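Researcher: Going back to the complex we discussed earlier. I've cleaned up the inputs and rechecked each line, so this should be the final set. Can you rerun the prediction on the complete assembly and write out the structure?
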Amino acid sequence: MTAAQNTARMAESVKDAAIAAFLVAVLGFFFFALRTDIGTGGLDLTYRWGLWLIAIAITFGVRLALNLFVFKAAKPITSGIKITVPSGVTSVVGRFLGPVLLIVALCLPFILMALFPNRDRQFIDLAILIMTYVMLGWGLNIVVGLAGLLDLGYVAFYAVGAYSFALLAQYFEIGFWTALPLAGLLAAFWGIILGYPVLRLRGDYLAIVTLAFGEIIRVVLLNWYEFTGGPDGISGIPKPSFFGLEFSRTGGFADFFGLDYDTIHRFIYLYYIILVLALITNFVTLRLRKLPIGRAWEALREDEIACRSLGINTTNTKLTAFSIGAMFAGFAGSFFATRQGFISPESFTFLESAIILAIVVLGGLGSQVGVVIASVVMIGGIEILRNLGFLKEIFGPDFEPTQYRMLIFGLAMVLIMVWKPRGIISSRNPSAVYKERKKISSDMVAQGEGH
Amino acid sequence: MEYFLQQLINGLTLGSIYGLIAIGYTMVYGIIGMINFAHGDIFMVGSFIALATFLALVAIGISALPLILFITLLVAMLFTSAWGWTVERLAYRPLRGSFRLAPLITAIGMSIVLQNFVQITQGARVKPLPPQIQGGVTLIEGVTENGTIAVQLSYMQMIIIATTLALMIGFSLLISKTSLGRSQRACEQDQKMAALLGVNVDRTISLTFVMGAALAAVAGFMFLLLYGVIDFYIGFLAGVKAFTAAVLGGIGSLPGAMLGGLLIGLIEVFWSGYFSVEYKDVAAFSILVIVLIFMPSGLLGKPEVEKV
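Model: Rerun complete. Updated structure for the full complex:
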């Protein structure tokens, strides 16, 4: 490389970094440099030139460094750390990833108890949360990944499940295990009711109508005060029992099995309930893919017109996808209600739908393992960001790390999608094969009419 | 009757704001076929920029209100356009030609980013701005058993409706007469062919985002003046309503977006006026569902032709 080339590269990098810094200066002017606050007699305007200049300087520096060493470098430093995995290893990993994850999931509470004896409750609680999202992701995967119908209001069925159990418990004193199937059935029923009018709609019309349904259900829950408690929500939702044994201090689970009473028992129990529910979702999905109805879903996703020409009843196919997906959300919802003991419409906002959809798409549409990885990364990531108290020592006591949580979450969504538009898992297992069973690239799979 | 007329005026005002935001959705959808979920938050960013500009202009001692309003409008449009351009450049352009769910997810991500960025830098509390434009004209005065009832058209409402009308006319001319409008329509029909004929597709798409953001900034400023209260979360509901309006009118169609916006505004205001305020969103969304059941491509949308 000649000196002239080097100078040109340097000049180009500096110019590019200057443009980026200028952009940040323009964009950030009204947000970094000026700040409005409620003061005496109206709004006060405060100036923060220091913050603005720091933001510009950081942008310039980072962009310049990236340009010099990665983007425009003759030999990017990232080329040194490029990991080349032999294809044999990936197929072995692909084959054993599922079973290994399953074994880890089965032993997880005991691993956590052994590794973190002081914080085990917190970690098991986090595992329960992640597992709930895995289950929701698998449920939505049926609708979006298999049938190819874009559903932006999936959280509505989650809410139906949660409220079904909470209301049944409140008005009829029904326990968790009786209410669970009822909640699933009710959610599936709502899936059919909401699915019916949208059958004729295509693409983004479908997306907005499902979003609208999600909002309608939330607004009704919020305003029907006499029945649902409105914004106050419903509290005192009963905990699940273990074959009639409560997890109480005396005369319950611990006494019956001769164990010392410990609140951790209930956490472990809840973990296994959601694990079993999630595994049922996965199992049912995998089995359904081999049945005519599952084949019809995937055919619908690939080409609706061809599907109709071959005599498949697209109405029933779409409705079953909607209602089965909704049913699993209903199960997950009633589990959520019993785990929290308190629910309110706050928990069922559009953001929740967006997170579930993001998990499905980021993991790789239609990939079951992808959903697990994306849930662990995204939900686990959010929770880790909650515990960044040590940053206070660096940036001073005014620094509140938790408020950056969702900002980083949003950025991560954008970055992962730009990096891998087809999701983290980039291969799919076709349901039907001609000669030999092999994985195909996700680019070969259509996205359905919803997209 | 007077009550009805008053609600009609209020509904048209609100509908104009929705319509301005809806144009941004419908243009982007028309040209690249994606739901720009961050557009509602661009509207929110626009109203924050307008608020800061307004206060800054007052602080440096400009006292003529029309001048302040005019400068604020221009500054808000300019800076919000920069935001619109940046969002497109960062989150959508790298995914051009990729499958259609990817930009939807980055759009939702950008929406979360914008909301939280504004919340962190400007605080989570609401920002109240006292009404700046007061007064109005009384159109009709009627007598009922409870006393007199007057139909008021405030100057604020006049400004909003007039600005929206002017922008709509200017905009339609821009699309139908200028070369930019021609290249936009060309990209809408066939991007590859437009590129072959020498249209700079990337630049056209960027400009579409810039125009949408500028209109959203106008809407944000109007919203700030009309309601006097903004916070970092206003973008979500306004965005969903405006998108509903765009779909109701037939997504991809500019007059449809305006019509849909007006309809959604009217439905909301009449429902709140005659039935219940709490369920106004339910009413708007229910009308959307009912219209779509009978007219699956919206009121003015072209039905999609399925080709095998």
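Model: Worth noting: Chain B touches chain A through 68 residues (CB under 8 Å).
Researcher: Good, that matches what I expected from the previous run.
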